Every structure is written in C-alpha cells, then in structure tokens.
C-alpha cells in the first residue's frame, strides 16, 4: 500500500485579524505555499515532534474510529509563526491525509472544524480563520459564521522580515488593551467595519479600493500594538511605491501583504524584506 499524502495552503488576512477573535468578520485568501503531510500505516507510531500533528492524528483516529499505528512526515514551504497560517496548514493537511490512510474521507468543511479544534487545543484562543481558509481555499469571510467569497483571482505580494512571534502572546496583548481601554474595543469594531466593506469590494474585483481599506487596517493594527518597525518599513515601502499594504496574521514580526503585485511594489517591498514572493488565491486541502 502506498502512503496517503495531502497538501494544504497557508492563509493571509486581507482584513480583520485580531478583530476576528472577537467575532468580527475577517477577509482572507489561501496562499499558494503549502504544507504536505504523508501518512502511512506502520508497525508503531512514528510522529514528528509537533503538538499540531499529534493532536490532528488523535482527532483523525477518533473520526475514523481506528487506532492503527501511523508513520507521519510533514514538510512545508510556509514561513513558520510569520502570519501565513503555517500551523493551520499543517493541521489541515495532517487530518486529511490521516483520515484517508485510516479508510475515511473527511470533507473540507469537516477538516476545517477538526483543525480549528486542533488549534484551540494547542494554542488556546484561536479563531477558525486560518484553518477554514486552508481547508476550503480561495477567498473567505470568517467571523460570526464562515463562507467562501466569490472574487476574481488576482495577485498580491508577500514580504517576510525573517522573524516570527507567538500568536498566543500577541492575542493576549490585544486582550489586555481591550480590557484596559475602551478605545481599543472601538478599534476592534472599526476593523470589523473595514472587513464588512472590504468583502463587497473583493466580490466586485475592486482590489484598488480594497487596498485603501488594507492601509487603514494596518493603521488600526498598529494602534493595537501588533506592528513592528520591520513590518511597518515593508508597509511604507509598498505605499511609497504607490501600492497598499498591511501586516498579516498575529503581527509582532513576520509578513506583510501588499497590492498590486506589479508597478514596482514588489521591488519596493523586497528592498525592506528578507524574502518577497507573489501569491494568488490557492486551492484548499487536496490529495497529492
Ligand atoms: C493569527 O493568524 C490571526 C489572529 O487573528 C488570531 C486568530 O485568528 O486566531 C491574530
């Protein structure tokens, strides 16, 4: 028997990270950089040292009602802890491949729900934004409910500063601010308003005016204390070249997403980034 292999994409926030933890909407797209899980029945368990993988395997076994020992290998081209949903992609790919190896199919919506439980078990507070987007692919709107967004394909630029930050710590920092200062709670609500407007612009393919909302969103995330000098340098490089940009994910360090992926914006971001790449909305979890 050959092993079961599945891959799942990363995810970037166009609008709404952090606010989505407070059930405000967020607009995301699946990034065409993927994590791949290879799962094979074995004489004994051989799992990588990752709580996400171990938790995902436990949940796949529960789903399949089958506890066959498994050998699991995971590889990924998604920067880790950098705002592109690397742990969500690993959880989604592992669940999908393990369920198949155990003789069950797990549809993408079910994979999304199970992977969200994996993230909650491992990191505490986590919204379903990254896991849902990685499972179903394309553009998504996640908040009080979750759905795919029918928007035309386009290209964005990701700039990566080479750093990483703990999502849990960044989320806790915002929670403290929201508790201490009612203005921070208002900012969270305003970020939700940006996503509500942004989804209409995405659906009509008006990415230029969506970009204006991304700029505003970065300013509000900065006010919540989750930007950094290197993230802001990449954002300002994109703006100075006539584009729009914001940090993506938990912040602190990691990645920005910029638009458009042409007219010198990519080159400008590259001048401040350790790595830069163009991304377009990707297919969700799939067998390989
Ligand atoms: C992390 O990728 C995004 C946050 O909104 C946390 C979450 O949604 O779970 C900061």
Characteristics:
288 residues; alpha+beta; Ribosomal Protein S5, domain 2; Alpha-Beta Plaits; 6-stranded antiparallel β-sheet; 4-stranded antiparallel β-sheet; 9 helices; 43% helix; binds (R)-mevalonate
Q: Can you describe this structure?
A:
By secondary structure, this protein is α+β, with helices and mostly antiparallel strands. It has two domains: 4-150, Ribosomal Protein S5, domain 2, CATH 3.30.230.10; 156-279, Alpha-Beta Plaits (2-Layer Sandwich), CATH 3.30.70.890. The chain is built from nine helices and ten strands. Strands 1, 2, 3, 4, 5 and 10 form a six-stranded antiparallel β-sheet that branches. Strands 7-8-6-9 form a four-stranded antiparallel β-sheet. Helix 3 packs antiparallel against helix 4 and helix 6 packs antiparallel against helix 7 (207-223). The protein is globular and about 55 Å long. The two termini are 15 Å apart. The relative contact order is 0.20. The mean pLDDT is 97. Bound molecules: (R)-mevalonate.
